[in-house]
Amino acid sequence: MEVHHVTEDAETFTCNAYLVTGDRPTLVDAGAMDGVVDEIREHTDDLEAVVMTHQHGDHVAQLEAVVEAFDPEVYAYDDHPTRTHEIDDGDTVRIGDEEFDVVYTPGHADDHVSFVSDSSLFSGDVVVHDDGAFEYGSFGRTDMAGQSRERLIESIQELLERMPDGSQSAGVEHMYAGHGGVFHGNVRDVVTTALERAEKREPKYPDE
Description:
Residues 14-179 form the Metallo-beta-lactamase domain. By secondary structure, the chain is α/β, with parallel strands linked by helices.
């Protein structure tokens, strides 16, 4: 599976948007970077699908522009004017060359879902590898209206339960989060570390 971070050079605030090429070219989140359509066209002219982890502005601002340019199928948990397919916990979606399980992971956002396959995790904002608060295992903020640390903790626990444990294969080795860096290695350990930090129930940021 080949993954291109198409908002990597953004100069404005955006999420990480990932273009996954292969049998079914798919964009995971649209981001908020002007010019993301041009970045996608550097790799493909045939974007077949967009899958959304959630609909915070930094993840969805460019969605309509992407849809206008490529007319892809759009998968999202909550309603959106461009949505063509509603997804829910337990569903399966094809991203690139792999089948991913949809895991409902609210707490940071009520409509948040993550996508996990035998090898890879698109975690959105529920868990990230690194950010301004923590390195190697951080979690989405929960200090704004409608967010819940307790629900986020439950979501991370659920995500761990739904990730392959590695007994039948190498396990999940690639983590593509909505913010921070891409991680390759023992993803289960990163997610476990994030859970342990979230369970301390301390403010993620000093002013939280």
